[in-house]
Amino acid sequence: MEEFGAYIRKVFPRVFSSSFVHHEVVGGFSHLFTVHGSDPLLQPYMLLAHLDVVPASDEGWEVPPFSGQERDGFLYGRGTLDDKNAAMGILQALEFLLKRNYKPIRSFYIAIGHDEEVSGRDGARKIASKLESAGVRLSFLSDEGLAVLDGVMKGIERPVALVGTTEKGSITLTLTVQSVPGHSSFPPKETSIGILAAAVSRLEQNPLPSLFGKGPELATFEQLATQFTFPLNIVMANLWLFAPIVARILAWKPSTNALVRTTTAVTLFQGGVKANVIPPFANATVNFRIHPAQTVEEVLELVRATIADDRVKISVQEAFNPLPVSPYDEDSFGFQVIRHTIHEIFSEVGAVAPGVCIGNTDSRHYLNLTKNIYRFSPIWLKAEDLSRIHGLNERISLEMYERGVQFYLHLIQNSDTPELPKAHKSLHEL
Ligand SMILES: CCCCCCCC/C=C\CCCCCCCC(=O)NCC(=O)O
Ligand SMILES: [Zn+2]
Ligand SMILES: [Zn+2]
């Protein structure tokens, strides 16, 4: 992380030497840039990204995950989609603009957190509280999240862009079973490992109920209705009638099932000490992502009822409710400027619609600074790419990285206006 700090100083010299830009390190490794605009009457906005990544071992990768190798027009590596593309893309856009003598009109902040993948406690949270203490209010905030989706949803022919206007809540539980150790030659009927395995299996076999149509995902499908081919366009325009059938179809695939319900993921499992010792303990970590129409308390209640075994102790590691829904009407400057910029840079998309971000982001730490939080990563995802995020062979095409830089470059310029942008500008301006 220290190397990242040295690296951006080296490759973005204008950002670090411009008289408009103030840079500071927060929480040890996070970066906060304040870009001073000429019009103090325009409320500032914020571009958010993070530099940390989830772990990756070489196994299963076509190239080592931290080698940053290029192959067939793709840059491979952990973080290329989540979220180095944004961390570097935003700074590269600003460097380019400063090189062209750009003078910002509206002030903005760039915040690059260093611990988003582990809650943002020392990065985003500290940056947010620093700005809050200084009385800063933001016009809008743009963060990673949803994307341009191409072929992710059957029945939609053109790619569509979803902007996360909210994100699911989360609860992570530790399940523990303890038992008396002993000799494995005369075992009890059930061991702590068997008891816990049965409990997590019950959780997997009994998914939380479908809530499709009871949350903001309804607006996504209503707004995308015209993008669906016949007869799905009729179905999506009449979800008051067809929601139960649509929910069953969406539940078939993990990516769309995530929109239907609170999801259950058993992510860690440990137990036992030796091959011939009855295990004294077993513990598991289960991560639930909470549908916007449900709460932490409701999920806990349902989980307790499903496990239904007092030998399994349940403790909460972390929990937060689904996030508030940001406005996406015609008068919402933040949503509209992002929507306009998406159409400029991703001219192939048939529609830009609000959506529920199924993953969590640093943006939740900024709730006291603005009600206008939008989660959109300027990346193009095909169905087969979804498994690369936090998975194997994460990669971005060089063309798509460049489009990401263009996206931030245009977003910065478009945000300089006090009004909503009107005409589309040409990409050839660059
Ligand atoms: C037509 C509707 C189809 C919707 C399908 C959703 C497709 C999902 C698209 C993008 C992936 C979402 C990733 C969100 C960013 C996650 C950031 C992150 O890793 N945060 C940490 C965490 O959540 O644990
Ligand atoms: Zn991320
Ligand atoms: Zn991530």
TrEMBL record:
Known pathway: Lipid metabolism; fatty acid metabolism; Amino-acid metabolism
GO BP terms: adaptive thermogenesis; amide biosynthetic process; amide catabolic process; amino acid metabolic process; lipid metabolic process; proteolysis
Gene: PM20D1
Family: Belongs to the peptidase M20A family.
Function noted in UniProt: Secreted enzyme that regulates the endogenous N-fatty acyl amino acid (NAAs) tissue and circulating levels by functioning as a bidirectional NAA synthase/hydrolase. It condenses free fatty acids and free amino acids to generate NAAs and bidirectionally catalyzes the reverse hydrolysis reaction. Some of these NAAs stimulate oxidative metabolism via mitochondrial uncoupling, increasing energy expenditure in a UPC1-independent manner. Thereby, this secreted protein may indirectly regulate whole body energy expenditure.
A molecular function GO annotation: metal ion binding
Annotated residues for binding of Zn(2+) 2: D82, E117, H390
Keyword Metal-binding: yes
Residues annotated as domain Peptidase M20 dimerisation: 166-309
Active site: D52, E116
Cofactor binding comment, as recorded: Binds 2 Zn(2+) ions per subunit.
Catalytic activity of the protein: N-hexadecanoyl-L-phenylalanine + H2O = hexadecanoate + L-phenylalanine; N-octadecanoyl-L-phenylalanine + H2O = octadecanoate + L-phenylalanine; N-(5Z,8Z,11Z,14Z-eicosatetraenoyl)-L-serine + H2O = (5Z,8Z,11Z,14Z)-eicosatetraenoate + L-serine; an N-acyl-aromatic L-alpha-amino acid + H2O = an aromatic L-alpha-amino acid + a carboxylate
Protein name per Swiss-Prot or TrEMBL: N-fatty-acyl-amino acid synthase/hydrolase PM20D1 isoform X4
Keywords: Hydrolase, Metal-binding, Protease, Zinc
Pfam families in UniProt: M20_dimer, Peptidase_M20
One GO term describing the cellular component: extracellular region
Sequence positions that bind Zn(2+) 1: H50, D82, E144
Necessary cofactors: Zn(2+)
UniProt lineage: Eukaryota, Metazoa, Chordata, Craniata, Vertebrata
